[in-house]
Amino acid sequence: xxxxxxxxxxxxxxxxxxxxxxxxxxxxxxxxxxxxxxxxxxxxxxxxxxxxxxxxxxxxxxxxxxxxxxxxxxxxxxxxxxxxxxxxxxxxxxxxxxxxxxxxxxxxxxxxxxxxxxxxxxxxxxxxxxxxxxxxxxxxxxxxxxxxxxxxxxxxxxxxxxxxxxxxxxxxxxxxxxxxxxxxxxxxxxxxxxxxxxxxxxxxxxxxxxxxxxxxxxxxxxxxxxxxxxxxxxxxxxxxxxxxxxxxxxxxxxxxxxxxxxxxxxxxxxxxxxxxxxxxxxxxxxxxxxxxxxxxxxxxxxxxxxxxxxxxxxxxxxxxxxxxxxxxxxxxxxxxxxxxxxxxxxxxxxxxxxxxxxxxxxxxxxxxxxxxxxxxxxxxxxxxxxxxxxxxxxxxxxxxxxxxxxxxxxxxxxxxxxxxxxxxxxxxxxxxxxxxxxxxxxxxxxxxxxxxxxxxxxxxxxxxxxxxxxxxxxxxxxxxxxxxxxxxxxxxxxxxxxxxxxxxxxxxxxxxxxxxxxxxxxxxxxxxxxxxxxxxxxxxxxxxxxxxxxxxxxxxxxxxxxxxxxxxxxxxxxxxxxxxxxxxxxxxxxxxxxxxxxxxxxxxxxxxxxxxxxxxxxxxxxxxxxxxxxxxxxxxxxxxxxxxxxxxxxxxxxxxxxxxxxxxxxxxxxxxxxxxxxxxxxxxxxxxxxxxxxxxxxxxxxxxxxxxxxxxxxxxxxxxxxxxxxxxxxxxxxxxxxxxxxxxxxxxxxxxxxxxxxxxxxxxxxxxxxxxxxxxxxxxxxxxxxxxxxxxxxxxxxxxxxxxxxxxxxxxxxxxxxxxxxxxxxxxxxxxxxxxxxxxxxxxxxxxxxxxxxxxxxxxxxxxxxxxxxxxxxxxxxxxxxxxxxxxxxxxxxxxxxxxxxxxxxxxxxxxxxxxxxxxxxxxxxxxxxxxxxxxxxxxxxxxxxxxxxxxxxxxxxxxxxxxxxxxxxxxxxxxxxxxxxxxxxxxxxxxxxxxxxxxxxxxxxxxxxxxxxx
Length: 1015
Hints:
- This protein is α/β, with parallel strands linked by helices.
- Strands 5-6-4-7-8-3-9 form a 7-stranded parallel β-sheet, with helices on both faces.
- α4 packs across α5 (about 145-165) and α23 (about 800-805) runs parallel beside α26.
């Protein structure tokens, strides 16, 4: 019989997750195709101009949450209204759209291995059947997860056809090279799901946002998607938490968003509608049970050992793992080394005397990184691990292989193939030479093979394969985990096909591969039901990563026909762990329970570094002479051509957009709220308080903490010194944080046989004496913008306002107004204030451009600033904004940058020309050129003194931008300042030019370039 995965449509936990989502839309009348079709035959989820009512959604959400808590009391979740946070409400992707978007997010928490992907595919079909929704997008963070989603769709297709009778549910894998498929997505009248990686649409430069001939009409590719009002599913949203990722999701214009994961980040579970906790998954037998085999250090750390784990740039450091001595005890630790560091001072290990870092080499192309010491020792990232770590790995690998052999022998009669998964520390230790981990595996496999006759005839090289994710680096495909190694192409392709795409083949006895090796590509999204052993040859510290790794083996096993054997005690996952991993797994349930319950830590301030002035350069002739030249006080003259200015102004005013009169109509509800705060009991040093909330009307407004029940009870535990208003169970923005601002516990004491709590504001409560407080709140319900019918309104003195703002004479302004077309003047009557604002701002821009093109500077004798005023001996800056000056010619040893363009200018352009530079520096923010008020002050970027022919000095000022084309600059004010600055520095005899971070021969004068734009 051919292998075919079997699915049970009646699993209670999956049906609950599906029903909870669909019940959010109780009362929604199903939409047929004819009701929603748009121009170009686009079929959206909702008709144009309609939206989901948030108050109705809130009521349904709370009903779902209450019903869930009754059904699953052990996995209860807070009952709240609709939470609209940064994920749900905000701007679209910068560089693509200036629009904002608002759409609710709903969270589904399902333990790994319990059918999350199956659940959201089936949810799509239920939403189609019940509501008529048919456009869905699944967003995934990696190729591994994308392949897993595609595979699940493939193997469930027949099951869903039988269950729903839908034969035309299809999946589209988004491909930026095949944008025509977006038309198929937009026009499909049947349910369709498009799968996208976040990387394919999270940058304005992606093809998703570019014009293409493959799509007819004026719409850009992403606009075809937007018009469908898609339902977006985020698979593993904890990997999509950056601001840019959130903007990208909003740019899809989703109707609503569903978030599915087992390891959501704390604080990122808006509007939870289903929760299957790990404890419940274990208790209900939905996943494998876990057992642990721990392997600790075998050699007692007596064998010298040292390995390079990672080398980073900016700044260049090496992370090394070696043995340290502390309080007389040895332990293996990780240290970060910089150039000049003494390893002995860090480790206190006598074996490291004389190990002073001479050089750290960064990996480049196919060359490994390295750390070289002054004693001549050199250790590379590709070198074999030294010391006891190798023996620990050998023991872990041997234990895994033996457990695998034993388990396969027991499961043969159930026709279940056993798989083992190894997580390794670096790709080089498997793919590279000598490939320590691969060598250890094959050695131990051969040794154990002799004890298991059934494994005779299966060579060691045939039974294992590895899969490691790739990325692009300088047009080369390299492994993201270790850019020093490249794999044999055919072998890598076959491993990818077998592990990621041919799950049925991998589960067949006919396929010899049974041992899989991965770095991090399989830590989430990928799973195989027959992984029975997980061996961790890496150091995993994060509890989330541990959960993800363990999750690869939690799914219940299947036999050769795809059925799940019914016999008990078959589904056991063995983790062969290093000591830190073992200690975590031994307390797995407790860690799972605690994970994510606490409030996230407050944001840390950026770490500061000190940039130190190089006084030899600061006091040198090159800098001092240049500075005096830079700081000559100039005067300027502006030759305004009134006739040309008038014509420029008339042209700009004729083409300007004048706002129509609009009113914003907001509707709200006035609510009286009553709080009742009472002491329930005292446990140890803590008081258990019950806060009851009653509202004058039964409405549903989350932003105010109002529920759709007459009373809402909330239990809070506080110790002395704790502030009720800051309690972790009150979410950010909760009004209770304001209403209880002065309720800080002063003392908990007993009086007359009854416990009491006293707050700093002198309020006291006890079980018999609760505290009552009434507050008045307004619950906003809707906001509507409407255009006002034009009627006679007073005309402001727009001529006087413009004269005050621009310094133009009233006669010139009146002349401009007279020459403006009558159609523009008539708009003044419909919206006088809006028209006046446009009139004044347009004239300011016209005048600023006029001045920037005609300003002339002269004079230049008095020096207006001492360098001591602007260049302190030491300057503290956020570390992330500093780069090392490797030329030795920077005025400071660390150079402050404001953008990646500036980073490239310093680290490539200046660095490559360092031998010709006498001194360079970034202008401090306080250095401003005195440009006319209408243009605004200007702070240039870079000053460079460069040695020319015969050691002559060239004095340069360079402005760094992403482009040298003036039309490419985003703001008109930037262009004006650059034009005026060019004239300013010309008067000083200093060459000024705009460059990019990649400009070659940046020192050439602008006049020598003969180009255009800003050159």
